[in-house]
Hints:
Strands 4-3-5-2-1-6 form a six-stranded mixed sheet. Strands 8-10-9 form a three-stranded antiparallel sheet. 59% of the residues lie in helices and 9% in strands. Helix 1 (5-15) crosses helix 6, helix 2 (17-53) runs antiparallel to helix 9 and helix 13 (363-395) crosses helix 14. The two termini are 35 Å apart. By secondary structure, it is an alpha+beta fold. The protein is built from 24 helices and eleven strands. Strand 1 and strand 2 (80-89) form a beta hairpin.
Amino acid sequence: MRSPVLPLTWHIVRSSGRRGLQSRLLAAGAAAVGTFVLLVMVAAALGSDARADRTAWRTPEPAKHGTAIQALATTYVRHEPVTAVSLAQLPGRPETPAPPGLTSFPEQGEVYVSPALASLLHELPANQLADRFPKASYGRIGAAGLASPDELVAVVGRAPADPAVSKQAEGSTVYDLDQAARAEITGFSGTHTSLFTAYDQQTALVGVALLVMPVVVLAAASGRLGAARREQQLAALRLAGATPRQIIGMTALETTALGAAGALTGAALYVGLLPLLAEIPYGIGGWYVSQLWVGLPWLAAVVVAVTGLITVSAVSMLRQVATSPLGVAQQANPRRTRIIRLVLFVAVLLHLWSSTGGGQLSTRQVLGLLLLFYGAFWLFGPWVVDRLGRLVSRFARGPATLLAGRRLSDDPRGAWRTVSGLVLAGFAAGFFAVSMVGMDGSAYRDQVAVAGAQPSEVRTLLRDAGVTATVDAVGEDDWDGLLNGTPGVIAHISGGGQARLDAAVTALTPANPAQPPFSQDYATAGDRTGIGRFAEVSTATLALSFLVATTSAGLTAAAGVLDRRRIYGLLRLAGTPLKVLDRARVRETVIPLVALAGGTTATGVYVSYRLNEAFGASINAKGALELAACVAVGALAMFAAIGGSRPLLRRVTEDAARSTD
């Protein structure tokens, strides 16, 4: 016997009319947004790892029987790092293969530069950058040797006796770690990634963990858009003789089709916007499009995951329809929550407290704890909303507040879905607003240090370059200056300005060819890189969190109006002003938002404080203002999204008698 599930599903879809179509379009739109954001998150995490791998060849991997000498040096211009790789073929040894991005091993005197560095060499005066490299015509480094189109990299061919590849090129200051190295090599199969990409994936994963739950919330909410109308239709079919299996099959079929359509749309949007996404800078700069392409397996996995989540979310609401269709049809049973949610939440908080109490946590542990907290709060939220609704109903002094309280207690899960996005985004806002602040190196401002140089030579070089400076010699006992216990010379540049500082670095390059002169950028690179990535991820995470939260709130509010049009129609027939209905709708959002968003924001601040404590960093004092601004912007966006459905409320209540039919 042919199953009636497919024809019945098609009949319900066709007969749902324009308002049913609106709910389904909203659900598909939510699925598209969730899929797009999730794919962007996965692309950032995978792409960061791919970028880091492309920098590993620059740090020399020592070999017992080397065929060439490789030296890594780092210099700075306009506060941006310039990675210089010097290579020298050893005589009488087998030929060394070409480094990534080059077609052959560079001969003595050949210089290859990245496209971004080539543009900068033409843009800046020679005394600020070009004079740091041998005079030569520049070749180009291909994409295979670069992590980003914006990266500044140079490969210089040297003679084996050149000071730039001597043993002194290994570095002698405490700042040389990951910025200077030297070894005899046989190839470019190193695994040690660059300082400037080493933190990218770890930091991106923290942002991903903070964004996963808001995206899950959005996808789950999209599966329940139009739930009230669907429940009424399915309850009627159940009373007419449909089996629970048929009811579940009809719902799964409809929501799977909607979810797949929305998820595929979001995937298509991601693919179409890849060139634009690649222009978004992160760390060392923009991306190659291939780095942000997640591949067909990941693309399919995300589409299937979002579709499955939407389907499970919709089907999970059918228990009452299957067991008590008459109660659903009469809308007699409020959806209460159980105290087990509170017990589980408290247990998770105690676990988090004990887990962060001692020792540093790995990236995987931090991600796991973040996801655990999000999951626990997702279960806890409806319980709080339910209790808030009861309290508000008991102490309400006006009809709008009374209606809001009754709606909160009658459908706490639905009310939670409206505000959950911003509530969980509040955790990210609190976490990042007071995040770590590193040393700014202000004590070394306008200083250039040259290890192992002589004061007389430094004065001569600066005078010939037209740079005014005070030159001081430092010894091994001087641990407070820029050289930090390394003998050499420190020049205090007069006149200020980054251009004069870059000119001084360029002029002093011949003072020690094995170890380029450096400024505060070099001394604080490790700290600034980690903090910089953290700041960039925080900005992106907050922006995407509020985007997802606003989308979720707007879609849920619009679908709520469509779902409750019969109730709104009855209230209008009873004489309730439209203004009162709209105020009740807004208060239904404001009450749980204030109570819950404050809690998650405070929790985010606490977690950030513990992370700062683990790294020995201080709290960002300016973060309080940024936090207030983030919360204010998020709340305004939320209310704007909810206000966008006000015309829809007016339309569905214009003909109250028809709306109640």
